[in-house]
Amino acid sequence: MEKVDFYETKITGGFWREKLDLVRKVTIGAVYDRFRETGRFDAFRCDWKEGMPGRPHYFWDSDVAKWIEGAAYALREKRDPALEAVIDEVVDNVARNQWEDGYFNIYYTLFARDRRFTARDEHELYCAGHLIEAAVAYAGATGKTKFLDCMLKYAAYIEKRFVTDCDAGFKTPGHEEIELALVKLFEYTGDRRWLELSKHFVDQRGAQAESNPDWMRPQYNQSHLPVRQQRTAEGHAVRAGYLYCGMADIARLTGDDELKEACLAIFDDIIGKKMYITGGVGSSSGGEAFTVPYDLPNLLAYTETCAAIALAMFAGRMQLMFVDSKYADVIERVMYNGFLSSLSLDGKAFFYENPLEILPFMTGRDVSINHQSLHLPQTRRSEVFQCSCCPPNIVRFIPSIAEYFYTIDAGQKTPVIYLHQFAESETKIRTGSGVIKVKQKTKYPENGKLQITVSGANATLAVRIPSWSDGIKILDLKEALFVKKEQGYAYFSVTDGAVLKLDLPMKIKLIEARPEAVFDCGRVAVTRGPVVYCLEGIDNGEPLRDIRIDAKTLKYRENGPVKGVPSITCSAKRRYKEAYTELYTEAGTRPAVDLEAVFIPYYAMANRKETEMQVYTFADVSGKRIG
Amino acid sequence: MEKVDFYETKITGGFWREKLDLVRKVTIGAVYDRFRETGRFDAFRCDWKEGMPGRPHYFWDSDVAKWIEGAAYALREKRDPALEAVIDEVVDNVARNQWEDGYFNIYYTLFARDRRFTARDEHELYCAGHLIEAAVAYAGATGKTKFLDCMLKYAAYIEKRFVTDCDAGFKTPGHEEIELALVKLFEYTGDRRWLELSKHFVDQRGAQAESNPDWMRPQYNQSHLPVRQQRTAEGHAVRAGYLYCGMADIARLTGDDELKEACLAIFDDIIGKKMYITGGVGSSSGGEAFTVPYDLPNLLAYTETCAAIALAMFAGRMQLMFVDSKYADVIERVMYNGFLSSLSLDGKAFFYENPLEILPFMTGRDVSINHQSLHLPQTRRSEVFQCSCCPPNIVRFIPSIAEYFYTIDAGQKTPVIYLHQFAESETKIRTGSGVIKVKQKTKYPENGKLQITVSGANATLAVRIPSWSDGIKILDLKEALFVKKEQGYAYFSVTDGAVLKLDLPMKIKLIEARPEAVFDCGRVAVTRGPVVYCLEGIDNGEPLRDIRIDAKTLKYRENGPVKGVPSITCSAKRRYKEAYTELYTEAGTRPAVDLEAVFIPYYAMANRKETEMQVYTFADVSGKRIG
């Protein structure tokens, strides 16, 4: 299977066009402003001195690098001299402050010149990876190679220290990222040297004991076992996700069956036991980590934005290796839920954590002590973070969303084009038999109606049937023939000028977690298509936990209490608070009251005042509880 | 209202007789052994030196003191020379190592001789209070006054430092206890000086800012407001409870209406907003504290054993001031649930925390880091604790349980005897009109049948109608006349030889928490009489959270899976785990399976292997969910 360069997909309208425009018009600038204010751009001058504000942290390089990567993706779509000037200034600073030997790192250049590559957990290779990704993206978008040249020199220095001379103080980085970045460098330059270097880091991980800070176990950075022996997702969820991307890349590009097997098992461990319905992963704030199976508390969900992105990235790499719609299903789950929740509707504020329940009254619980005894996620998005990995990750994820739309299997007689994600768009796919154009006309995710036009050459088009759908309805086929359903895809044989009118029937569905996911027992999530919905206190009164919905009355509405966002309404009941005089009462002796419950998409939560929020709710069907 | 000396109540059989015998035969010895092993007894020699095992902690005096107090209560019932020899050895060490000026504290004598009474949070007055309580108890039980004499001298020194010379480094102790202890000293000696000293400490609290460790806010030790202005329960739940006892004591003995008002409000704040159905209080491990209203998580409940005891002590003092059965209701709730759960059925092991849910799989969640990110209570009782306040508190609470059985209002024409708690027992009550004997014949809490015999003089007998009961049934009255029901008591006019046959109908009841207690929404607790029941995984399979009981089928059984302990069984359903292949599934599409659910009393939980436990469960009545 091969990638379809996402630059070849033009998102022409609809849901993701709006998000792309928001990122271009607002988010890129908002993150830029915050980074400028906090000194992250100036830090690249490497002239910070004690007493100046904003002491550079050892992960600052990566913050700006991710922002550049995202800005570059936006630039590819539409050049912008002002934006490029900002990036060029950073690049000039990188070039100016790069060491003779190729090394570049703000923190180490300023504060720790004598101990480069000695502290495994101080993110040098993590920063290097993000700088490389940024350089590749910027070169790809603008053709300017100064940044890329710097990073090629840096990559060569890394190779010297970690492979040729083998004199670094550790074997593998404490925070993975370099692995997948080097693969990007290989894919862009075609130089196999970088693939080998990436493979080196993947191979070394867990092969021998390495030093870690005291509070950390080897699982934290996935060093507990050689990667080929790993079968479960462990430790820091972002580190894990980035590693799994690197593993999947190497597995695909080198045909490494042991690595493939590890990737398959780890992916299934995540989606079968460790993923929220929103696609959020890493349930524990302690270690920002994957934990034991089915440990998925809603109120305490850590579910870092970067971890959701990393999961989508991992799934994207898996769908390049294996034909199974579960990979695209996960990407879609992340896209519309646990990732998208991280960005405010105005594009300016961000969630680091994306919990499945918010109870504002709980944030005041430690009234008698000066620390937080329970790590409760934020109840509102912030514009600025000390540890600011998430905002620029959002900046790069949305403009590259089309990366997940298509893959192509060119190894068949006629090329098989896999259409994974649905969005109003036009794509050019280069195949051995010429350029094939695929055009999607759809209002997805408002409804599941798709009109797909294929032109240019004969091909097989495999359209994903999402797991939330009860199948795919063929409304009309022109120059196209239905062949089969397999592994979650509907295959059509298409010729030049084919038009497929399809429908993925989008009903409101109540979803339950399996019994082992104890925090969800007895409750259901309201979903429609790929979108998970939630209740907010501002619309439904509090406490939300006491609401029981009547599932027969659920209705989808194109509008709702949040502007520009749909809603689902239904009849519901809750106990009548005022009827209670005591804390404990004989059950069933107090009246219930009716209400019209209003659900909004989870991604739109927390955009008004601070209020309760919950995904899972009690529900009755025909007067009987389900879930 | 006056106390009825609990020494005058002989518990002659039944539930509490068994517990008293267990404490006498097992628990006193078990705690003694642990304290001996850890050096707590030897510490009283005040000759510990660097290098020796078991460095004395500044709260060790109090651990042994509480143990002595409990042992003394047991001795009062039956003298035991061997046990007294152990206590006399401690007393000799106290006398030998007491300072010339009257001061006594192991830690300060060993390590901090120069800074006595300078560190507010280092428990000197807390230890002093427990030593005073122990000395009073030991004198009361044996007539030996050596210990008491030492403590009178110490109390005089405290008075000198904190009142006369007023040269201590703080005004009020960081951990309350001395207040109620000095009242006991007053009540035993009749010397009003100790009541005044107690009142001094109560009056001073919150009257001015005092120093605290950095992590602590004034609420932590109830110093945020002058006590007479306090209306809510705040901070460390044991400190709070002990303070409220002192406040109630002073209010009662001095007729202080402002203090009474504060006590009334605080008590109602606790039982209306901050108490678990088990009588556990202090829901947060952070600060071991009361938190905001309705913050009552089940899995994370801290609910320290000592805090439950302190709540019962506070309620006991309130029922001496106010006629309202809610005070005795709370005591009973604590006695049979959140207190009794702390002691293993074999009498040897203890819970410090008494959560309302145990999920063993969660304890492994921090697999990738070397610390616990979420404070989860222990899943099994321990025999030994570093911080060992709870075990000796159990040792003293059970042998003094009869303290809560009776109060007397001698201010009426004929004395009114309030019978608060039900247990097979004989009590002598000294009144102005002579000794009145009250004899209870009952199998309580197995059932609610009571035969009460009153002899000696005319009186009014007020029998509590528990809040769990739908009333009191008069089966037969001899030489007794029903007068009225008021404030939760049934009043009978009785003459010498009266026999009252009564019944408190004991049905299985499902109890719900009010809607604001969000962690219980949609679920109910199974109770029978004063006893809260729970499910354990060992009997019911796991996960327990998925069980839904059929409330129509609930049946009480005198026996059950735990030897010597009753059970409640019913039909129930749970989802069929094996029918699930994925983590998320359309709700209601998988089969349920039937099971016979078995509840055991909450107090009997965690006496077999490590397993899930939960109090609140989903329940249907006539196929419809309640709660």
What would you say this structure looks like, in words?
2 copies of one chain form a homodimer. With 627 residues, chain A is α+β, with helices and mostly antiparallel strands. Among the domains of chain A are: 228-404, no CATH class; 406-503, Maltose phosphorylase, domain 3 (Sandwich); 508-626, no CATH class. Chain A has 14 helices and 24 strands. Chain A has helices at 14-37, 60-77, 81-97, 106-111, 124-142, 146-164, 178-189, 192-204, 237-254, 257-274, 305-318, 325-338, 390-397, 537-540, and strands at 2-3, 9-11, 235-236, 289-290, 357-358, 406-409, 416-419, 425-431, 434-442, 449-455, 459-464, 473-486, 489-503, 508-513, 524-528, 531-536, 548-550, 555-557, 567-575, 584-586, 592-601, 613-614, 616-621, 624-626. In chain A, the strands form 3 sheets. In chain A, strands 1, 2, 6, 7, 8, 9, 10, 11, 12 and 13 form a 10-stranded mixed β-sheet that branches. Chain A has a 6-stranded mixed barrel with strand order 15-16-21-19-17-23. In chain A, strand 6 and strand 7 form a beta hairpin. In chain A, helix 7 (178-189) runs antiparallel to helix 8. The model of chain A has no long low-confidence stretch (mean pLDDT 96). Chains A and B meet through strand 3, helix 10, strand 4, strand 14 and strand 20 of A and strand 3, helix 10, strand 4, strand 14 and strand 20 of B.
